[in-house]
User: What shape does this take?
Amino acid sequence: MTQLRVGIDLGGTKTEIIVLNNASEELYRKRIPTYRDDYQRTLDDLTLLVTQAEEAVGVSCIPVGLGIPGTVSRKTGCVKNANSTWLNGRPLTVDISAQLQREVKVTNDANCLAVSEATDGAGAGYDLVFAAILGTGCGGGVCYRATPLAGPNGVGGEWGHNPLPWTSEPQLNARPCYCGRFGCQETFISGTGLTETYRLATGASLSGVELLAARDSGDSTAAQVIEAYMDHLARAFAGVINVLDPDAIVIGGGASNIAEIYDELPKRLPGYVFGGECDTPILQARHGDSSGVRGAAWLNQV
Assistant: This one.
């Protein structure tokens, strides 16, 4: 029988499960709302989803991978840095493995994006892939030959909580971050950061989609904000290239649908990358918002 894999994406608002075969074909998928602030309910919902998936495909004890909006500390074995705060400080890997009676591989959801896109997505065929989620927040993950590189602190790729390079102190201080610091890249280049740039300029709030529509309708301030956003992205990704020099950068999340990113960044990156050259491909995630759950399933290829 073809090897099957279960992937689960445990998000703050939805939890999704998928069953893939070795040919990357989807055999089953289900999505439910995430029940918040109840750790045992989370474990029970995950267990029920796996049971239902296995019943649907007629196979039991399928390997499971789980992506979470945080990471598991090597030191304590507990979740840390999760914006789904009821997971923090909990031994999720141990507990869900016990409930499912098998080893469950758990990693950060941005690592799952990286694995998915490096395995059979936009980054397939590249050895070293950096994947970024530009959504409500700003996550990042790194994988080498489709294997996630989390590092000893579990924060490999999480460049969103470094300050935006080549930015003045007043500009950094104008952007408080939920992590307790100021000027994190997340506050500039996430979808929320794009909205904040417009708010700082005008006092009004527009979503990314509304900003693009306003720019296209002749709003000069919206045009300036989009222009600034492209420059912020170039600075942020240049910082990745100067440290890691990946073979490809893949972008997911809502802001990844801004089409001009893929024309503009290749033009702007050489101005910030050390040496004045940059041949790094900037690619949109092929699997869109399915990449996280697909990558969780592919954790069991490694």
